[in-house]
Amino acid sequence: LFLKMSVYGPVVKIHPVVLASIGDSYERRNEGASRVIGTLLGTIDKHSVEVTNCFSVPHNESEDEVAVDMEFAKNMYELHKRVSPSEVIVGWYATGFEITEHSVLIHEYYSREATNPIHLTMDTALQSGKMNIRAYLSAQMGVLGKTVGVMFTPLSVKYKYYDTERIGIDLLERTRDAPNTTNGLTSDLCQVGGAAGRVQDMLATVLTYIEDVLSGKQTADNSVGRYLMDLVNKVPKITAEDFETMLNSNINDLLMVTYLSNLTQAQIALNEKIVVL
């Protein structure tokens, strides 16, 4: 069983909800269980595997054997397909820092459920002071007709999130320094203001970099220049007057929708009181 190999294969993109689900299943594990395992769901393309969901699978393991509730895993996958038919089985996860002999047996089961499944490990014990997250791809090795082993090759891991997941991440970050405090979701207007502030900070950083390059304080980076060119090209060409007209029109539409929704709520509340009387 070899683990230290060069990075080769698809890029694994993991969403925050997957990491949160794995951590939650570890906290809710059965008494005496050293780790938990589960199925990874997501999508696959030519160059990447995107993990968007997961669910834990009951299992028991000792020094001599491992038992996995495969019927439970199949039923859970069937239920998930009804909600998200585009998500397929892309692999499985296990908490812990290393791959064990039992991991090879479990991986053989998932190899029958998916083509080239990935194996994801998350160090919930924080052995190195942080939650190391690693992904592997397996391949058989050995001499044909003789003893055959399994080689796990590490893959590149990246983190990806939807806009809704970013809101949850920002909320969690506010409790990082003071975990005992309680924070609630802010209003939409506050979120827009915070996003605008972050955009202003990033633009200030970009302008500082450009001024340093023009003055000779910093060496120009061609890759950064290409990113800036793409950014400039994506900005729509519109005059200030047209932009103000468009903004005012959208604000008027928003105010009209808000007024109609409040009027509808008032009518419903009045109708409920009349029915009660």
Automatic annotation (TrEMBL):
This is Eukaryotic translation initiation factor 3 subunit F. Its main location: cytoplasm. Signal peptide: none annotated. It comes from the Eukaryota. Component of the eukaryotic translation initiation factor 3 (eIF-3) complex, which is composed of 13 subunits: EIF3A, EIF3B, EIF3C, EIF3D, EIF3E, EIF3F, EIF3G, EIF3H, EIF3I, EIF3J, EIF3K, EIF3L and EIF3M. Pfam families: JAB, MitMem_reg. It is found in: Cytoplasm. PROSITE patterns: MPN. HAMAP family: eIF3f. It comes from Salmo trutta. Keywords: Cytoplasm, Initiation factor, Protein biosynthesis. The keyword Cytoplasm applies. GO terms for molecular function: deubiquitinase activity; metallopeptidase activity; translation initiation factor activity; translation initiation factor binding. Residues 12-142 form the MPN domain. Belongs to the eIF-3 subunit F family. Component of the eukaryotic translation initiation factor 3 (eIF-3) complex, which is involved in protein synthesis of a specialized repertoire of mRNAs and, together with other initiation factors, stimulates binding of mRNA and methionyl-tRNAi to the 40S ribosome. The eIF-3 complex specifically targets and initiates translation of a subset of mRNAs involved in cell proliferation. InterPro entries: eIF3f, EIF3F/CSN6-like_C, JAMM/MPN+_dom, MPN. PANTHER family: EUKARYOTIC TRANSLATION INITIATION FACTOR 3 SUBUNIT F, EUKARYOTIC TRANSLATION INITIATION FACTOR 3 SUBUNIT F-RELATED. GO terms for cellular component: eukaryotic 43S preinitiation complex; eukaryotic 48S preinitiation complex; eukaryotic translation initiation factor 3 complex, eIF3m. One of its GO terms (biological process) is formation of cytoplasmic translation initiation complex.
